[in-house]
Amino acid sequence: MPADATPRSSRAQQVAAEIEARILAERLPAGSRLGLRTELISRFEVSPSVMNEALGILRERDLITVRPGPNGGVFVANPPPQVRLGGVDLWHQGLTVDPEHLFEARAYLDTLFPPVALRRASPEDVRAMEWALHDMQAATDDPHAYLAANMRLHLAIARASRIEVLVGLYQTIVSILSATLTKATYVEGSEELRRHNLEVHSNLVAAIREQDMVAMEKIVALHRQDMVRIT
Question: What's in the keyword line of the UniProt record (predicted)?
């Protein structure tokens, strides 16, 4: 093989990744037409066999469908997830901003609120956190319920901080994310990641309940690592 040659499977993976990136970058909804197979072959300057392999990769991931006939072609089946949060893949629709930006803003506030809540939380605040944590732990088969409980937990922490202006902003972010969420699925093989995520949140509530600032600083650092971007 020449030194600059690319193995067929590697090139097919690259093409699949580029098509997926376009679907995500342009926020293409299900049913959007990506083009004819022959048009895609020409656009990416690959052989029919490489394109077939690339489309096969995307079909296996349920991202595209290929329809025959005069009005056929390659169409978006399901757009890829936009955010991965603690072992949960999330899809949003109807947003005018990238959902990652909203989750990023939420993440910054999630770093700010807990140390303040540790000093100001009432017993009622702590009970609200514990109820939400219990619901997270119970949602082993329901990613929507898991995410909803996660948001309730962090909203309870925000409210316990008594920083009303920022709590209002946080409530708005949570409301927008909840209203535009169209799909949530657990990432395959993410059981250990979800276990870690639950442990971090359990320790977070415990630190607030016990007013343990040393533990809080370590937990907040771990929590920041749990959100990653899907690209």
Answer: DNA-binding, Transcription, Transcription regulation
Q: How do residues 113-133 score in pLDDT, each as one tens digit?
A: 999 999 999 999 999 999 999
The order of strands in the sheet holding 181-186 is 181-186, 88-92, 83-85, 227-229
Give pLDDT, residue 9: 63
8-76 CATH, one of 1.10.10.10, 3.40.50.620, 3.40.50.300, 1.10.357.10? 1.10.10.10
Angle at 93 between CA 92 and CA 98, to 5 degrees: 65
pLDDT at 3: 39
78 dihedral zone (left: phi>0; alpha: psi -120 to 50; beta): beta
Domain 8-76 and domain 83-229 have a common topology: no
Question: What is the rounded CA–CA span in Å between residue 15 and residue 23?
Answer: 13
Q: Distance between CA atoms of 72 and 57, rounded to whole angstroms?
A: 19
b (16+ CB within 10 A) / e for 121-151: beeebbebbbebbebbeebeeebeebbbbbb
Range 83-229 classified under CATH 1.20.120.530: yes
